[in-house]
Amino acid sequence: MTAELQDDELAESRYLAERARWLVRLRYPAVVSIGVAAWAGWATGFIRGPLNLLAVGGALALYNTWMWSRLRTREADAGLAGRRWLIFEQLVVDMAALALLLEFSGGVENPFGMLFALSGAIGAMLLTAPQAAALGVIGTLFYVAIAVGQLTGVLAHHGLHGQYQAGGIVDPLYRSPRFVGGYVLAFAATLTGVIYLVRSVTERYRHAEALRREQERIALVRERFSRVGEVSAGVAHAVRNPLHGLLNSVALLQPKVAGDSRAEETLSLMAEALGRIESVTARLLSLTHDAPLRIVCCDVDALVQGTLKLVAPPAASMATVRAELGAPGEAQLDPDRFTEALTNVVDNAIQACRDGGTVTVRTSLQEASVAVDVIDSGKGISPEHLKNVFDPFFTTKAVGEGTGLGLALARRIVEEHGGRLSLGSEPGRGTAVRILVPRHAAVAPGEAR
Length: 449
What we know:
Layout: H1 3-44, H2 51-71, H3 79-103, H4 116-126, H5 129-152, E1 164-165, E2 168-169, H6 177-256, H7 261-288, E3 296-299, H8 300-315, E4 320-324, E5 330-333, H9 335-352, E6 358-366, E7 369-376, H10 383-386, H11 406-416, E8 420-425, E9 431-438
Parallel strand pairs: 4-6
Antiparallel strand pairs: 1-2, 3-5, 6-7, 7-9, 8-9
Helix pairs in contact: 1-2, 1-3, 2-3, 3-4, 3-5, 4-5, 4-6, 5-6, 6-7, 8-9, 9-11
């Protein structure tokens, strides 16, 4: 799991924990409202007795106190899924309490049955899609149980004022199968529609928020690389002049120590180390400046063979390098820059096979383009690193073994030729890099661009 994903889950987990506490805080005013409504309904004669309603309100208050204590203990730290289930439990309890309140205050005759939609909307915003759907089914079942129970006489009907006259019950709606069936269907459709609509809006908002965060991340990365490019270009310029002086000094000293094997070895090591520094500074400068291409007609197989002659001998102790040349013919390229790009790719492949793997360099003709495939049998690249392989200075190698510039520079050179560099990899199965360049450049051979 990447660090960004962990941060997102942690932020969402904290948000859900706050929403769970918000539900508890919201429930206390609801309990007070139940008490006030029960007293007002009894005082005005709207309902015949407030005790049942007060009992439901009292039970809900006790549950709320218990839930608050749970949220203050370690039981609430159950991760993202655990906090969603805490919210799901609270909403189911709220629906059960609302169902009992409706049972004791008119059943289907009470228009406040639509308050089920409030719990459904909250669930649609905070829960997963299956949990929100399950909440809608549970709410519908609660309401159906009341309606069918009172219709069949299994549950006692606590009628509202106005349904009774001196001579008895007049056209009781709760006894009408047609009314109850239609009302239940309307209730189910309304609850389902509210959950679906709120869920759709929430998903769109989350997608837009994720897109906004990704765009901000990309902007920050671009700004960082821009600053790194400016600094690295300055460093490269500042380093190259004294570096060339050191290289010249080593070259002047080497003839004077001829015959002293220890001194020769020391100077050779110095020259090699300084050469590496020179290579890095040259890569930095080429990465941060637009050096023009010098296009000429080149035999692609000859370029590949020349490249392998340079990189294969030092790599003999690490990997087997072989060429499978398909004679694609000539292409209009900058030979030096193309060789540099290919060298970077092959070097990476050899490093991936340093424990005795195989690197295959294959050429072929692909319609109007020339393809050079570099395939290694190394360890491959993990999915979380695959998206960053072309970022400048990104490397999975140990400190001191890589600069993270090779693939970034190679892709830039290939794209300057109007081509495309693509990479595919799977852990344990190696990596394949394809360089695809058009045979005919956008400028005439011999011209710079």
